[in-house]
From TrEMBL:
Transmembrane segments: none annotated. One of its GO terms (biological process) is regulation of neurotransmitter secretion. This is MCTP1 protein. Belongs to the MCTP family. It comes from the Eukaryota. Keywords: Calcium, Metal-binding.
Amino acid sequence: GTSDPYVKFKLGGKEIFRSKTIHKNLNPVWEEKASILIENLREPLYIKVFDYDFGLQDDFIGSAFLNLTSLELNRQTDVTLSLKDPHYPDHDLGSILLSVLLTPREEQREAFQTQSLRLSELHRKSQLWRGIVSVTLIEGRELKAMDANGLSDPYVKFRLGHQKYKSKIVPKTLNPQWREQFDFHLYEERGGIIDITVWDKDAGKRDDFIGR
């Protein structure tokens, strides 16, 4: 009864931005930010929403167009777009909310600095990232037993710079199956080493470290 939504933005047929995937949610909150160089304002921004499916083709949820000529210069505009499926134009597929700021090129950097103060440092730097690394955590094999019952309750933590993810906990097993996806943004000024640690969840006391 849920989806794992992510959003793709296209301009002139080219993908220019892809959001992270938010799992098991019909009301996702992304709060991601991208800075896009627009050559032609008459080219609409094409927005497509998908449901991520592990190992299968992702499901199309719906799409919308944003007419850039309707935006006022230097004014932050909140936009709500209704998602549609071209094959079923009458179906209500939900909506997507954007906050858009259109600035002339020379003012761009300054405007973004002031507009994005309410976002965290990470989101401010989203305009500088150069790619996405999608990591799919599949399974663990023959992990170390940390509990008295000869088993563990393993989970995995990922860290790349300021970005952190934590998998779900799989109880009482040394061969956990996760099948979860995590998306990292790669930045210019930082190396690409992802720190991966495995832990055993312990209720009421500190979790046991299994390995890195």
